[in-house]
Amino acid sequence: MVVSTTWKTLGAMALGGFVLFSAGMIVIRLKMTELAYDFESIKNEERRLHEEQVKLKAALSEKLSPAKWKSDGFREPEPEQVIAIP
Hints:
Layout: H1 5-64, H2 66-71
Protein backbone atom coordinates (compact mmCIF):
# COMPACT_ATOMS: atom_id res chain seq x y z
CA MET A 1 0.00 0.00 0.00
CA VAL A 2 1.45 3.29 -1.09
CA VAL A 3 0.69 6.49 0.80
CA SER A 4 0.40 9.43 -1.50
CA THR A 5 2.68 12.40 -1.04
CA THR A 6 -0.39 14.57 -0.37
CA TRP A 7 -1.18 12.56 2.79
CA LYS A 8 2.47 12.66 3.86
CA THR A 9 2.52 16.43 3.41
CA LEU A 10 -0.77 16.80 5.23
CA GLY A 11 0.51 14.63 8.11
CA ALA A 12 3.73 16.61 8.31
CA MET A 13 1.78 19.87 8.37
CA ALA A 14 -0.53 18.54 11.08
CA LEU A 15 2.45 17.39 13.14
CA GLY A 16 4.16 20.76 12.63
CA GLY A 17 0.99 22.58 13.64
CA PHE A 18 0.67 20.44 16.76
CA VAL A 19 4.30 21.12 17.72
CA LEU A 20 3.87 24.87 17.19
CA PHE A 21 0.63 24.88 19.17
CA SER A 22 2.26 22.95 22.02
CA ALA A 23 5.26 25.28 22.04
CA GLY A 24 2.93 28.28 22.11
CA MET A 25 0.97 26.84 25.02
CA ILE A 26 4.19 26.20 26.94
CA VAL A 27 5.32 29.80 26.37
CA ILE A 28 1.92 31.12 27.49
CA ARG A 29 1.95 28.92 30.60
CA LEU A 30 5.48 30.07 31.52
CA LYS A 31 4.45 33.71 31.07
CA MET A 32 1.37 33.18 33.28
CA THR A 33 3.55 31.58 35.97
CA GLU A 34 5.97 34.51 35.79
CA LEU A 35 3.07 36.96 36.12
CA ALA A 36 1.75 35.01 39.12
CA TYR A 37 5.13 35.33 40.86
CA ASP A 38 5.25 39.05 40.03
CA PHE A 39 1.72 39.49 41.40
CA GLU A 40 2.63 37.65 44.60
CA SER A 41 5.72 39.80 45.15
CA ILE A 42 3.67 42.96 44.57
CA LYS A 43 1.05 41.74 47.08
CA ASN A 44 3.82 41.10 49.62
CA GLU A 45 5.14 44.61 49.07
CA GLU A 46 1.63 46.00 49.52
CA ARG A 47 1.24 44.09 52.80
CA ARG A 48 4.60 45.36 54.03
CA LEU A 49 3.73 48.95 53.15
CA HIS A 50 0.34 48.62 54.84
CA GLU A 51 2.00 47.36 58.02
CA GLU A 52 4.46 50.25 57.89
CA GLN A 53 1.57 52.68 57.42
CA VAL A 54 -0.21 51.28 60.48
CA LYS A 55 2.98 51.63 62.55
CA LEU A 56 3.50 55.20 61.35
CA LYS A 57 -0.10 56.13 62.17
CA ALA A 58 0.33 54.68 65.66
CA ALA A 59 3.56 56.63 66.16
CA LEU A 60 1.88 59.84 64.95
CA SER A 61 -1.07 59.29 67.27
CA GLU A 62 1.31 58.79 70.16
CA LYS A 63 3.20 61.99 69.33
CA LEU A 64 -0.04 64.00 69.07
CA SER A 65 -1.76 62.53 72.14
CA PRO A 66 -2.65 64.85 75.03
CA ALA A 67 -0.70 62.60 77.43
CA LYS A 68 2.47 63.21 75.41
CA TRP A 69 1.90 66.97 75.50
CA LYS A 70 1.44 66.89 79.27
CA SER A 71 4.58 64.80 79.75
CA ASP A 72 6.49 67.41 77.73
CA GLY A 73 5.39 70.13 80.18
CA PHE A 74 2.42 71.56 78.32
CA ARG A 75 -0.79 72.17 80.26
CA GLU A 76 -4.27 73.54 79.72
CA PRO A 77 -4.31 77.32 79.21
CA GLU A 78 -5.49 79.56 82.01
CA PRO A 79 -8.74 81.48 81.36
CA GLU A 80 -6.83 84.75 80.95
CA GLN A 81 -4.65 83.15 78.28
CA VAL A 82 -7.62 82.26 76.08
CA ILE A 83 -8.49 84.89 73.48
CA ALA A 84 -11.84 84.57 71.74
CA ILE A 85 -11.89 85.77 68.14
CA PRO A 86 -15.32 87.08 67.14
